[in-house]
Amino acid sequence: MRESLHDGRVAIVTGAGQGIGLAIARRLEADGARVMFADLEEAAARKAAGETGAAFWGDLADEETAARLVAKTVETLGAPAILVNNAGGGILRPFLDHTPETLRATIDRNLWTAIWCSWHALPHMKAAGWGRVINIGADSVRNGLFDHAGYNAAKGGMHGMTTGLAREFARDGITVNTVAPCAVVTPQYREIEKSNPDLIAKVVSVIPMGRAGTEEEVASMVAYLARDEAGFVTGQVVSVNGGTTML
Ligand SMILES: NC(=O)c1ccc[n+]([C@@H]2O[C@H](COP(=O)([O-])OP(=O)(O)OC[C@H]3O[C@@H](n4cnc5c(N)ncnc54)[C@H](O)[C@@H]3O)[C@@H](O)[C@H]2O)c1
């Protein structure tokens, strides 16, 4: 553990039960943060938290649940200094193939989770005079990737919240940024690779480097933005995308 980087600072990672969120949580732990593993699924949150026992489960698109997450974190680990809004995931399909339920679920899980967790965590960061909010957005907002309109509505809202919050808290020692990945190799990606290789080929064809990213490559950018040394970087959407979109 590289304790000097965070020296026990408290981090909340949402959607930390698996995939990119789990990789981010592990990376922040390695940098010396004490992490609260939050997820919709109890078993996944508990398993990810392991011996630390710092697990929380519930639907974070619900305001009261997000409030309970922050309260439990304060009680058990201390006030959150780092919040990673990673909970989410796409329901990807042509816009007109969505149902009202799938559209609502897309916005709920990707945008409302980030709004409520930020709303409840920011007062603690402001009181401490130091904080990091890091959202996991999506590079597809920049290139209008096929079948992504509903998902981009949610992630685009997250990108927009980033700039507004960054300005609002710029003099409170708090930075707010978004990391925007292109396709990332997760267990789900591996499944699709087997069941629908044509889809994977189509997604990868737009990535100049000719491959999807790794969970660790996303976690690495999050880890950088969480550190003291990134203190002058705020209001940015940083793509981790193998060159898919540039500038
Ligand atoms: N995998 C990719 O290719 C990719 C690309 C761009 C962006 N992203 C974004 O990165 C993030 C992580 O992606 P992933 O592929 O690891 O996803 P995943 O589906 O493997 O994991 C997401 C986690 O979030 C949790 N979650 C979902 N809704 C929640 C809610 N309402 N409350 C609490 N927890 C909730 C899930 O239980 C799950 O454990 C997501 O926001 C996703 O949209 C992923």
Automatic annotation (TrEMBL):
Its keywords, alphabetically, are: Oxidoreductase
Question: What InterPro entries has UniProt attached to this entry?
Answer: NAD(P)-bd_dom_sf (IPR036291), Sc_DH/Rdtase_CS (IPR020904), SDR (IPR050259), SDR_fam (IPR002347)
Give the top-rank taxon of the lineage listed in the UniProt record for this protein: Bacteria
Q: Name one Pfam family in it.
A: adh_short_C2
The transmembrane residues are none
SUPFAM superfamilies from the UniProt entry: NAD(P)-binding Rossmann-fold domains
Q: Which Gene3D superfamilies match?
A: NAD(P)-binding Rossmann-like Domain (3.40.50.720)
Which GO molecular function annotation, any one, does this entry have?
2,3-dihydroxy-2,3-dihydro-p-cumate dehydrogenase activity
Q: Does the keyword Lyase apply?
A: no
Q: Name one GO biological process term.
A: monocarboxylic acid metabolic process
Q: Does the keyword Oxidoreductase apply?
A: yes
Q: What is its EC number?
A: 1.3.1.58
Similarity comment text for this entry:
Belongs to the short-chain dehydrogenases/reductases (SDR) family.
Name this protein carries in UniProt? 2,3-dihydroxy-2,3-dihydro-p-cumate dehydrogenase
Natural source organism: Sphingopyxis italica
